[in-house]
Each structure stands twice: as structure tokens, then as C-alpha cells.
Amino acid sequence: MLIQMKNWEHREKLNNGIADFLASLETRKAYYPGSFELYQQFTDAHLKARQMGNPKEGHLPWTFIPDIDAANEDDICFKREPFISLYSETAIDADTVVEFIDKAVEVANEKVWGTLVATIAVHPDSLKDPLVAAAIDQAIANLRYGSIVINYWGAMAYYMVTTPWGGYPDTDIYDVQSGIGFVNNTLMFDRPQKSVVYARFDTPRDPTLPMFRITISILFRPRAITSAQP
Fold first, then answer.
1. Which helix (H) or strand (E) element contains residue 98?
2. C-alpha to C-alpha distance for 69 and 88, rounded to whole angstroms
3. 120 pairs with which residues across the strands?
4. Element (H, E) at 64
5. How does pLDDT run across 125-171, given as a tens digit for each residue?
6. Average pLDDT for residues 82-103, to the nearest whole number?
7. Does pTM top 0.90 for this prediction?
8. Helix 97-110 and helix 130-142: axis angle, to 10°?
9. What is the 3-state secondary structure (H, E, C) of 149-213?
10. Using CA atoms, how far apart are residues 3 and 150, in angstroms rounded to an integer?
11. Is the CATH number of domain 2-228 3.40.309.10?
12. By C-alpha distance, which of 162, 229, 167, 163 is closest to 196?
């Protein structure tokens, strides 16, 4: 789920750019059990979903569902984790960037299903505003996710291995969501709350990403901060 500021002037440009990039990629095998049935549920609920690519047998098209109503908590995009080649976008009203950040955290915590990882994209020029910088720091503290990754793919918190990886520790067996407990955690924190990974606002040449499949160099140095509950 991509959360944007509704009146941001580049919102549609970003949406279209992501969709165009996905359209340029080969489709992927839908390996997860029940993928086709789940895909049907999402597309039945959103008949205007954008489908891209020419899927082969056993594959699903890349699919984008834009402009989800943030007030509709019953939308399947808020209630189910796709785990397929599908993503959605919602936008919220805000008069300032700081207000948007606060509201986006609320939506992510209260409406979006799952607690595994959240990604924040923020330009360094934006962080020169002390109010925005403070709001980002507060967002990192308030997001109830097991990993927070700034300016990079969320799975980097897993690939680093040293950082604990798992759902935020506020669930139980009656509402497991993204799971209970952590893997990795080579520093062996007893009760980790979340891992925080920072990266440059840049386009790293990362061999795990589809646009750089050949290169073997990664041009950034992430640093991890792990909080432990007392």
C-alpha cells in the first residue's frame, strides 16, 4: 500500500511512473498458495485495476489499484495481504507535509493489515526543514512495524541479517498478522521492538533489484538502529 498526500502535485506522475516501470518487466510466477484466487478477489473488488504485462502460464499480470478510499476500512486492500504482483495506492488530505506524515502513520498503523515492514521515502532537501525532520523521527518512533526502512526497499532490513526481522511485537495467537517473534537478530536482543535502516536518497546499483540484474556493486552504506524494549 502506497500512501500519498492527496494534493501533492507529483502524485499522478509517480503513480504512472511506477506503473510504466512494472509494465516493462517480465511477469513473475505466482508461487504462493491461493495466489490466483486471491488475485481474483482483489480485481473483482476493483474493476478499474490497471493490469500490465503479458503473463505466461502460471504467472499473474502486474496490477495497480490506485486511489483507494482511505476512509473505507473494509476495502480488501486494507484487509488482506496480497503476496502477489499487485499493489495499491491511497491518498489522504493534509494542509502541510507535517500533517500528512502524522496522518500517514495513523493510516499505516490503524488501517493497513500487517506489521512487518514500512518504508519511508524522504528527500534530503525536505529534511532541511526542522519541522519535517522532527516529524519523520516521530513517525519512525510511532510506526508499529517490525522494521522501518528509509529510502530503500523494505527487505533490506532482512538481508542485513544483523537486524531483527519480524512483525511488531504487539500481536498474539488470536491476531497473528505478520507473525510472532523475530529471525536474524545476530546481536541477540532479548526483546527487540523494531529495526530502523537508513539509506541515501539515491538509485543504488543493487543486484537484488530488477533494474540492476547484472551489476554486483551496491553503492550505499545502510546503517541500522535497533530499539529494545526494557
1. helix 97-110
2. 11
3. 150
4. strand 62-68
5. 999 999 999 999 999 999 999 999 999 989 999 999 999 999 999 88
6. 96
7. no
8. 10
9. EECCCCCHHHHCCCCEECCCCCCECCECCCCCCCEECCCCCCCEEEEEEECCCCCCCCCCCHHHC
10. 15
11. yes
12. 163
